[in-house]
């Protein structure tokens, strides 16, 4: 018996990287999975992977910065599989890596829409369906970048801080509906990691060396099981938590100052 048998899950941004890893882990644990992904090709490919494993899976093209798309994806999960038990908010839309003084209002708006507003919309849309099932599990994605004040990510850091606040508020208020709400702060070898590794010789080795465990994470093998834990009855008494899933990177942290930025400017 799988840990998530008879459970219905919706995962945003499940077309690649960590989202795909979580989707594969969920499928192997017995869940029906809705792949809520903007990229049609990758979304369909992941849904096909899950079906090849014997899982029930559905791809729904979803722009998480659109409330209409989110409402449609949640409704599709209910229509196709009869309800919704698990929500994983993973997707976000990146903006250019520039200094805080060069970040624009448009960049901040894009980031807020794809993280804070996306989580707000999905959680609100999922609520009545989870209440109808007698409870549910919500897992939001946070980031170590916020904790170290990562350079060039000012808008992202601000948005992820808000996601933690939303997670804690929902955990406090929705516990009365038997809905558990937690966050994870993962780092793994997703698409961005592989791009940086290809462009910067030695990046992968340096990244691994920063972690007390001495290696970088795998989306499915390292991140997926933690999300399965939070989505299963193994975590029935856990809510309002933020769990680092990063090989211990949060202990030493990291310095993200670009090499070409002087220490003092006037």
UniProtKB/TrEMBL annotation:
* Matches recorded under Gene3D superfamilies: NAD(P)-binding Rossmann-like Domain
GO biological process terms, alphabetically, are: fatty acid elongation
**Molecular function in Gene Ontology:** oxidoreductase activity, acting on the CH-OH group of donors, NAD or NADP as acceptor
Q: Which Pfam families match?
A: adh_short_C2
Give the UniProt family note.
Belongs to the short-chain dehydrogenases/reductases (SDR) family.
PANTHER family annotated for this entry?
3-OXOACYL-[ACYL-CARRIER-PROTEIN] REDUCTASE, CHLOROPLASTIC (PTHR42760:SF40), SHORT-CHAIN DEHYDROGENASES/REDUCTASES FAMILY MEMBER (PTHR42760)
Instruction: From the Swiss-Prot or TrEMBL record, give the protein name.
Output: Short-chain dehydrogenase
Q: Which organism is it from?
A: Marinobacterium aestuarii
């Amino acid at each position: 018996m799988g840990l998530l048998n008879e459970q219905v899950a919706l995962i945003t941004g499940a077309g690649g990287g960590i989202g795909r890893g979580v989707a594969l882990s969920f499928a192997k644990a017995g869940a029906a999975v809705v792949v809520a992904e903007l990229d049609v090709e990758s979304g369909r490919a992941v849904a096909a992977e899950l079906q090849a494993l014997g899982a029930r899976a559905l791809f729904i093209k979803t722009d998480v910065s659109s409330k209409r798309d989110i409402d449609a994806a949640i409704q599709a999960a209910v229509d196709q599989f009869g309800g919704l038990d698990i929500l994983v908010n993973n997707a976000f839309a990146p903006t250019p890596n520039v200094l805080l003084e060069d970040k624009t209002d448009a960049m901040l708006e894009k980031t807020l829409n794809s993280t804070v507003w996306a989580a707000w919309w999905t959680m609100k849309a999922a609520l009545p369906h989870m209440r109808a099932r007698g409870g549910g599990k919500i897992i939001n994605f946070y980031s170590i970048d916020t904790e170290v004040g990562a350079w060039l990510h000012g808008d992202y850091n601000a948005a992820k801080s808000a996601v933690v606040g939303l997670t804690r508020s929902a955990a406090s208020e929705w516990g009365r509906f038997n809905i558990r709400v937690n966050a994870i702060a993962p780092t793994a070898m997703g698409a961005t990691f592989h791009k940086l590794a290809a462009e910067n010789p030695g990046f992968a080795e340096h990244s691994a060396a920063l972690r007390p465990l001495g290696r970088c994470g795998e989306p499915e093998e390292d991140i997926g099981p933690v999300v399965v834990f939070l989505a299963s009855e193994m975590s029935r008494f856990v809510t309002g938590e933020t769990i680092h899933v990063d090989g211990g990177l949060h202990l030493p942290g990291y310095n993200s100052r670009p090499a070409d930025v002087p220490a003092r400017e006037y």
